[in-house]
Amino acid sequence: TNTTILFFTAIFFMFSVNVKLAFYALLPLPILVVIVYYVNTLINQKSEKIQEQLSRLSSFVQERFSGIRVIKSYVREAQTQEVFEEESNSYKKNSMSLVKVQALFYPAMLLLVGISTILTIYIGGEQVIAGTITAGNIAEFIIYINLLTFPVTMLGWVTTLIQRAAASQKRINEFLKLQPDITSNNVEKPIINGNISFKNVSFTYPDTGIEALKNVSFEIEKGQFLAVIGRTGSGKSTLANLIMRMYDTDAGKIEIDGNELRHINLNNYRNQIGFVPQEVFLFSDTIKNNIAFGLSEISEGQVENAAKNAAVYHNIIDFDQKFETMLGERGITLSGGQKQRVSIARALIKEPKILIFDDCLSAVDTKTEEEILGNLGKIMKGKTSILIAHRISTIKNADKILVLDRGEIIEQGTHYELLEKGGAYAEMYNNQLLEEENLEN
Ligand SMILES: Nc1ncnc2c1ncn2[C@@H]1O[C@H](COP(=O)(O)OP(=O)(O)OP(=O)(O)O)[C@@H](O)[C@H]1O
Ligand SMILES: [Mg+2]
To answer: Which domains can be identified in the chain, with CATH numbers?
Structure first.
């Protein structure tokens, strides 16, 4: 308000002294407002573009660094460097253009103020000669103009600042108000038995439109061992993700202990499941913390025990720092099979009511696999296990085997039932037997 009062009083006095002089002295001011506004908008647009570019540049660098081995093995160093150079140069160019606008802005402002002063002196000089005003009035006008330019510049400046803040706030709000697709309002915390039933479940990935599961129905009871087998892309991982409720079904329903999964307290439910995803993910942390990841507190020997059950204990003990060995970027890299087994240990340590293995024995040899399966038999006694596999040797002993093909269950039963049927499963079995024989000879 101070500024407003100052603004209008100054203009009032100017016009009361001499209308013509006031008009010319104030002439550059509206132009100044427009320029400030226009330039600021330009600056905002440019800086937004630059920010976007910077984020692109940094994710490019981050990705290339984590994929540096791939780059080396495909000899793409030079090409990667070129792309980086191009991106950096374009970033530099845009930054320079921003700086140029900013650099021009201040002198342009001063120029307009200067023009205003010159006009005042010129027109005022004529008026003094004509005797309508005194020389003191010119000095008065120059002070007025200096008083006025500041609020005028600020007006343009503040307007764009507000606009910019509003735009950013809009984007932040969009993010903050985002609702998760998967919600659960139930607060009950029942202990899960592990009876799972799928009733005509279909699921299509919303982003790709791929129908990954079609009309899938099956049941497993507490304490059973279910195996899922099928060609790649047949929907096995999707099935596991639906049991974890990473997605909701499009049609049909999944029931856990007779209650629909959608209505179950999700945290409580997931807490009682041990899930080993197909793609192993270990944190850049110690082996111990990676294994104990799902627990809030660990008791003596728990981590070691889980490692033994996952048949990775001896590997870990061989490291200098044993369970305190750092993994990932700042530590050692485990072999593929070791990673899988650490990730298995992470699921086993939770003593889950339902255990889901998504193809996580693929990188271990058959002997280790047998050892792990033997341990599982003991740990998972009376609890539900679901094993997704490609090798029939892994799942021979399952209580029920589902054979998936293009999202549909084409066969289900035990190993012997399916062999007798002589369908897809039997064919798979014979092929794998042949392969093994070939390997042995
Ligand atoms: N997150 C996703 N978004 C979109 N489509 C997906 C997603 N995950 C999988 N799909 C698609 O769904 C289909 C089933 O994939 P799924 O991962 O369930 O196969 P899978 O049986 O586990 O295969 P694999 O044996 O190779 O692991 C595939 O066609 C795949 O392209
Ligand atoms: Mg899969």
So the answer is: 2-176 (1.20.1560.10), 196-440 (3.40.50.300)
